[in-house]
Amino acid sequence: MSLFGTNGVRGIANEELTAEMALDLGRVIATLKPGKIAVACDTRLSSQMFKCAVLSGIMSAGSTAIDLGVAPTPALQFYSKNNKIAGVIVTASHNPREYNGIKFVQENGAEFFREMDEESERVYMSKTFRRAKWSEVGSLLRDDCIEPYISAIVDSVTLERKYRVVVDCGNGAGCFTTPEILKRLDCEVYGINCNPDGRFPAREPEPVDRSLTLLKKAVVDFNADLGVAHDGDADRAVFVNEKGEFVSEDAMLALMAKHYVEKNGGGVVVTPVSSSRCVEDAVKSAGGKVVYTAVGSPVVAKVMIEKKAVFGGEGNGGLIFPEHLLARDGGMSVAKVLQLIDESGKKLSELISEIPRYYMIKGKIECKEREKVLKELRRNFPEANHVDGARIDFEDGWLLIRPSGTEPIARIYAEGKTRERAEELYSEGLKALKQILGG
Ligand code: MG
Fold first, then answer.
1. Burial annotation 324-356 (CB, 10 A radius, 16+ → b, else e)
2. CATH class held by domain 359-438
3. Are 13 and 6 in contact, with CB atoms under 8 Å apart?
4. Which end of the chain is more exposed for a tag (fewer CB within 10 A), N or C?
5. Which CATH class is domain 9-145?
6. Backbone angles phi, psi at 65, to 5 degrees
7. Looking at the whole model, is its pTM more than 0.85?
């Protein structure tokens, strides 16, 4: 695998990812999934260029291209699911301004799984595309995926009380959905960076604690119940509590997972091996079970289908509500968090205080011998979870050693009840990895 990463094809626009590549990728999906194919894009400056190339590639292969305009990734995915047609989203998600990306979506709304990306890459590399005869070139239709997406979310949530919410869309695609969702849920909405702008003048597209100063301040100044921020394509949502404090994504994942397990009287929650132990603790306390996957949202969705999971998600603000869509959904996350606050009668800070706290340390070192490391990890830690590197769980923490599949590095994650324990586990991991690489 070289072209397709964990989330489709990504790169700096017009350098690593070009219009020619986008055209061929349009031809690839129309070769693999002929018929009607929906395409949407985020607000990036290069997104319309790539979207037009993808549409053109689809038509050249004899399929009907449906232009959905600018929309969040989950809105395109929901459209794909409802219409049972494949889709393409042009977005670089949380990556910096100069990047863009192209990701394929299945007819069930889930992202392409790894083996599907591999098949796409084979067609792309071998250039074995369909090419339609002049009289059979596909047509171009336009449609809207925003309204059905907003309606479905609003219909799935009932709030007894009125809430004041500050929303920071980061000038991304969430501008078209989340403020409207909140208004229809009868919230009092204050918007920050809610005008689409592909230059991302206010903050980087990734919603991280350090870049949400304005949101945190606004929540306090407006005496709001909640603050929420999205990444560039609004499949992720991160939250600020009523005190203006950033809520860790892992704690939010644990809170929502626990809520879903309680509501379902048990069930499976799916999350990558890199997720905090607080998720497993919360899920177990509610009578549920955690199933760990490799890192990456497509495989989380895939395992959720296999295990009939009640909930899933990643520790980066990507939450998956399977009854709605088998993909991360920032707009639905906001609605469901409000629903939980409403049902519990508690403030977000109170709900989060019930989630166990851990300290996590992450690091990486150079590693060009992925296969050797994986083999040695299996030999040295036979009792570990080897779904992606080796995750070794202890009573009071865990350690994950994970050689990257795309870069010449290995990542080490360590988590403990105390910072000291996390540091201790981290040094153990580093020592074990260095021994493998040196020996
Ligand atoms: Mg995203």
1. bbbbbbbbbbbbbbbbbbbeeeeebeebbeebe
2. alpha beta
3. no
4. C
5. alpha beta
6. -100, 130
7. yes
CA–centroid distance, residue 317 to ligand 1 (Å) = 9
Determine the CATH number of domain 163-240. 3.40.120.10
SS3 390: strand
Integer Cα distance of 147 and 331 in angstroms: 13
Share of the chain above pLDDT 90, in %: 97
Residue 405: pLDDT band (50, 70, 90) is confident
User: Which CATH superfamily groups domain 249-352?
Assistant: Alpha-D-Glucose-1,6-Bisphosphate, subunit A, domain 3 (3.40.120.10)
Q: Quick one: pLDDT band at residue 420, thresholds 50, 70, 90?
A: very high
Model confidence at 157, pLDDT cuts 50, 70, 90, reads: very high
Identity of the residue numbered 32 = L
Output the CA 330–ligand 1 centroid distance in Å: 9
Q: What is the Å distance from ligand 1's center to 253 Cα?
A: 16
CA of 233 relative to ligand 1 center, distance in Å = 5
Choose the catalytic residue: 60, 80, 93, 120: 93
Q: Could you check whether 9-145 and 359-438 share the same CATH topology?
A: no
| Closest by CA position to 338, among listed 153, 172, 94, 71 | 153
Q: Where are the domains of the chain?
A: 9-145, 163-240, 249-352, 359-438
The per-residue pLDDT for range 114-133, each reduced to its tens digit, is 999 999 999 999 999 999 99
